[in-house]
Design brief:
The complex is a heterodimer of chains A (272) and B (259).
Chain A lengths: L2 E3 L1 H8 L5 E4 L8 H9 L5 E5 L4 H8 L3 E6 L11 H9 L6 E4 L2 H13 L3 E4 L15 E4 L6 E6 L5 E10 L4 E3 L6 H7 L2 E10 L9 E3 L6 E4 L17 H12 L1 H13 L6
Parallel strand pairs in A: 1-13, 2-3, 2-9, 3-4, 4-5, 9-11, 11-13
Antiparallel strand pairs in A: 6-8, 7-8, 9-10, 10-12
Helix pairs in contact in A: 1-2, 2-3, 3-4, 5-6, 7-8
Chain B lengths: L5 H11 L6 E4 L3 H11 L6 E4 L3 E2 L13 H6 L2 E2 L2 H9 L6 E4 L3 E2 L5 E2 L2 E5 L2 E5 L6 H7 L2 E5 L25 H5 L6 E5 L3 E5 L6 E6 L5 H6 L6 E8 L5 H15 L8
Parallel strand pairs in B: 1-2, 1-5, 5-10, 10-11, 13-14
Antiparallel strand pairs in B: 2-3, 3-4, 6-7, 8-9, 11-12, 12-13
Helix pairs in contact in B: 1-2, 2-8
Classes of the chains: A alpha/beta (272), B alpha/beta (259).
Family (chain A): Belongs to the 3-oxoacid CoA-transferase subunit B family.
GO molecular function (chain A): CoA-transferase activity
Pfam families (chain A): CoA_trans
C-alpha cells in the first residue's frame, strides 16, 4: 500500500543522487512541484528520462541536477527551444549534459517493456534515420517467424518515476484522467514511484476514461494541490500558456534564469 | 482581392491538401493550424489525431501544445501514448502525416535534430525527433509544411531525423518503410511534389505572384521544375476569415485559474 507522505519527505526518501529519474506527463499532469522539490533538495548527477522534456527539465538541467538526458523531444511546445537544455548541450553550462536520443515510439515502447518485465521492446521504427548511429540502445532484430528486420530498444527501468494525478484515496489508489500519456507504464516500469495529487479523498468516484493505479503498485503519494502548474490538471486547472511563453525570455539568459530559480523555487517555503 | 501574407497562403494551401473524411496525424504549430482550417472549411469530417493520445479531436480554438485540454475534451477517444503509436500509427491506419522541418533535402529527408558542428558538439541543438520518424515511415502519405529558404532547403541535411525517399528510388522499399513518404511539400512560395520516377521534389505549383526564379533562389540545390508548372488560387475571403479567427483564438487562450 502506498504511503501518504509530504512532498519534501517523498522526494528525500525516493529520489537519490545519481538516480535514473523519470518525471512523466504529456503536456497534461506534469509534476512541476516535485521537480522544484528535487531542485530545492539539490539532487545531483541524475539521469533524467522523459519523452518530452519541456520546461521542468529545462529548470532541472539549468539548476545543475542532471548529468544525462534520455529523451525523444526537447522543446517548449508551441513556443520554441529550451534555452537551458541548449546551453548545457552546446556549452556544458552549468555542467555537461550527455544525451541519449530516441523517437516517441521508441521511448513509449521502452516504458512498455519495462512495465511488462521484458528486457526489450520491438517496433517498426528508426529505420534509415541517423538516430541509431549515436546510441547502442537502438538495434535491428530479425523476426523469428517472418524473417523481417525490425528494431529493438531496451526496457526503461527508472530508479524512480514521479507523476502527477487528479486524486488518490487514503489507501494510495491513484486516479487520473484526460491525457494520461505514458504515466501508467512509467510508474510500473520503475523500481520506486512517487505520485503527487491535487487532493486525497475518502472515495474515488469513477470518471470516464480514467486510469487507476492500485495503491499497492505505488510507493508513495503526496497531496500537492496545483502541483502541475504551469502544466494543468484536467478538472482542476487549465494550462498556463502565458507562463510557457514567458519562460522563453526568462530562460534565455543565465542570470535571469538563476534569479528566477532562486526566487520561485529555492526560496519557496514548503509545508512539511 | 484581399491582402494576405505568404504564411497565410502556405497555411491555406496546406489545408486544401487535406481531403474530407481522412485521418490526419497533426503536429503542433502550422500543421495544427492548417488541419483545423480544413476542418472548419471544406473538410468537416477530417479526423485529427494528436500524438498526446487524442483521436478525433474537434477543438474550437487552436491549441498551443499537442496536449491542451481542449483536445482531450473534444476527442472521440483519448488513448495512451503507447497506444497512439502502436495501434494507430504503426499499422498504417493514418492517411496523412503532417511534418515540419528545420532542414529538408531534395528527397524529402528531414532534420529536426542538430545543425552544424557534429552531433556531440552541434552549432544548434534542435528539439529532436518526437513522433516524426515513425510518422514519416508509416502514414500513407506525408505532407511537409515549411518555409522555403537556403538554410532550410539544403543539398544535404546535417542529420537524418525522418526519412523521406532516402537517396532516391527504391530506398523506402529497401528500408521496409511502408508508408508512401513525403509526396508533397508546401512552402510559402509554392508546392513541390516528389517525381514518381526519380523521387526528387519537383516544383509543380507557385503561389500567386511568386516567380520560378524566387523559388530557385530559395533552394539549396538545382531545383527541378515541372513542365506544366501551374499557379495556385489565392486564399478565398472565407478561408482568410476562418484562418484569422482561428489565429485569434490562439492569442486569447485562457491562462491560470480553475477550469
Amino acid at each position: 500500500m502506498a504511503k501518504l507522505v509530504s512532498l519534501a519527505d517523498g522526494v528525500a526518501e525516493l529520489v537519490r543522487d545519481g538516480d535514473t529519474v523519470a518525471l512523466e506527463g504529456f503536456t497534461h499532469l506534469i509534476p512541476f512541484a516535485a521537480g522544484h522539490e528535487i531542485i530545492r533538495q539539490g539532487r545531483r548527477d541524475l539521469t533524467l528520462v522523459r519523452m518530452t522534456p519541456d520546461v521542468i527539465y529545462d529548470q532541472l538541467i539549468g539548476a545543475g541536477c542532471a548529468r544525462r538526458l534520455v529523451f525523444s523531444w526537447g522543446g517548449n511546445p508551441g513556443v520554441g527551444s529550451l534555452h537551458r537544455f541548449r546551453d548545457a548541450v552546446q556549452n556544458s553550462w552549468p555542467v555537461p549534459l550527455e544525451l541519449e536520443e530516441h523517437s516517441h515510439a521508441g521511448m513509449a515502447n521502452r516504458y512498455v517493456a519495462g512495465a511488462s518485465g521484458l528486457p526489450f521492446a520491438v517496433l517498426r521504427g528508426y529505420t534509415g534515420t541517423d538516430l541509431p548511429r549515436h546510441t547502442t540502445n537502438i538495434r535491428p532484430i530479425e523476426c523469428p517467424f517472418t524473417g523481417e528486420t525490425l528494431t529493438a530498444v531496451p526496457a526503461l527501468r527508472p530508479d524512480v518515476t514521479v507523476v502527477h494525478a487528479q486524486r488518490a484515496d487514503r489507501a494510495g489508489n491513484v486516479q487520473m484522467w484526460g491525457i494520461t500519456g505514458v504515466q501508467k507504464e512509467a510508474v510500473l516500469a520503475a523500481h520506486r514511484s512517487l505520485v503527487t495529487v491535487e487532493e486525497i479523498v475518502d472515495e474515488l468516484e469513477p470518471v470516464p476514461g480514467q486510469v487507476v493505479l492500485p495503491g499497492w503498485a505505488v510507493t508513495a503519494v503526496a497531496a500537492v494541490p496545483g502541483g502541475s502548474h504551469p502544466s494543468y490538471t484536467q478538472g482542476y486547472s487549465v494550462r498556463d500558456n502565458d507562463f510557457y511563453r514567458a519562460w522563453d525570455a526568462i530562460s534565455r539568459d543565465r542570470d535571469t534564469f538563476a534569479d528566477w530559480i532562486e526566487r520561485h523555487v529555492r526560496k519557496v517555503e514548503v509545508q512539511a | 482581392m484581399t491582402d494576405y501574407t505568404a504564411d497565410e497562403m502556405m497555411t491555406v494551401a496546406a489545408a486544401r491538401q487535406l481531403r474530407d473524411g481522412t485521418a490526419c496525424f497533426v503536429g503542433i504549430g502550422l500543421p495544427s493550424t492548417a488541419a483545423n482550417l480544413a476542418r472548419a472549411t471544406h473538410a468537416p469530417n477530417l479526423v485529427l489525431i494528436y500524438e498526446s493520445g487524442c483521436l478525433g479531436a474537434k477543438p474550437d480554438r487552436l491549441p498551443l501544445s499537442i496536449g491542451d485540454g481542449v483536445l482531450a475534451d473534444t476527442a472521440d477517444a483519448v488513448v495512451s501514448v503507447p497506444e497512439v503509436f502502436n495501434y494507430w500509427l504503426q499499422p498504417g491506419r493514418i492517411d496523412v502525416g503532417f511534418l515540419g522541418a528545420a532542414q529538408l533535402d531534395r528527397y524529402g529527408n528531414i532534420n529536426t535534430t542538430v545543425i552544424g558542428g557534429d552531433y556531440t558538439d552541434p552549432k544548434v541543438r534542435l528539439p529532436g525527433a518526437g513522433g516524426a520518424p515513425e510518422i514519416a515511415a508509416s502514414c500513407r502519405e506525408v505532407v511537409v509544411v515549411v518555409r522555403q529558404g537556403l538554410r532550410t532547403f539544403t543539398e544535404r541535411v546535417d542529420f537524418v531525423t525522418s526519412v523521406g525517399f532516402g537517396a532516391g528510388p527504391g530506398d523506402r522499399e529497401r528500408l521496409g518503410l511502408r508508408g508512401g513518404g513525403p509526396r508533397t511539400v508546401i512552402t510559402d512560395l509554392g508546392v513541390l511534389e516528389a517525381d514518381p520516377a526519380t523521387c526528387e521534389l519537383t516544383l509543380t505549383r507557385l503561389h500567386p505572384g511568386v516567380t520560378v526564379e524566387q523559388a530557385r533562389a530559395a533552394t539549396g540545390w538545382p531545383l527541378a521544375v515541372a513542365d506544366e508548372l501551374t499557379t495556385g488560387e489565392p486564399p478565398t475571403a472565407d478561408e482568410l476569415t476562418v484562418l484569422r479567427a482561428l489565429e485569434a483564438t490562439k492569442r486569447s487562450t485562457p491562462s491560470g485559474g480553475p477550469a
